[in-house]
Predict the structure of ABC-type phosphate transport system, ATPase component.
Amino acid sequence: MAKDKVITSADVKLWYGDFEALHGINLDFNQNEITALIGPSGCGKSTYLRCLNRMNDLIPGVKIEGDMRLQGEDIYSSQMDVVQLRKRVGMVFQQPNPFPFSIYDNVVYGLRLQGIKDRAVLDEAVETSLKQAAIWDEVKDKLHVSALSLSGGQQQRVVIGRVLAVQPDVILMDEPTSALDPISSTQIENMLLELREQYTIILVTHNMHQASRISDKTAFFLQGRLVEFDDTKKIFLNPHEQETSDYISGRFG
Ligand SMILES: Nc1ncnc2c1ncn2[C@@H]1O[C@H](COP(=O)(O)OP(=O)(O)OP(=O)(O)O)[C@@H](O)[C@H]1O
């Protein structure tokens, strides 16, 4: 049975000034799937990812063309509320970036911005989000200490909790484990497999083992082009394109 498409993108092109970084990307994302974006450094994975919640709007001199839709709504329409969009399409970066506040205040940050003040509602959101982010047991007795006092792996899970608290539809992750040790990385990978039940996840990764272990679909980018997009098994075991095969087998990149 065909799954629902949460995000669709057609003929996405992006220029940084005169430099064309994306050359017409066509890529759709199914609900409750993890899609990995792979490819050598500089091929445009992060640039493409940032198009999906309009993070590139913040960069001067950027021009974007193409059609990108979230649940059918035009992401680049003038009607689109960008604050709402970034709530619906949350983002986790390579370096954990907790705010210099307590764990609790980090997690409820987005909810307070929405005007939610009810302590019971906030408490409930903190517990639920930190459980989903697989860090509740480690921090439940110290919710009011600074998030910056945690290890890198714990900080990244608190940041994921902060993203989950506003109940996004889609979570964008840009190399979320590359700054972490192997145990923390595995914890986050296992958590993503759980989160897939509820969310649609788009993950940029340089880690081929990670892409093959946890993603349903894989998109291989090269020099601003989408070379191949398919089921992860197919991409890793029997890719259609020679360039994909060369990259997967470590012949470049
Ligand atoms: N703010 C920017 N201004 C100008 N050029 C940029 C900017 N950001 C990225 N680029 C260029 O766009 C191209 C794609 O970069 P991008 O960061 O999207 O690649 P990537 O595949 O995510 O790389 P990596 O795996 O190293 O993070 C590169 O040539 C890069 O130098």
Observations:
- The chain has one domain: 5-248.
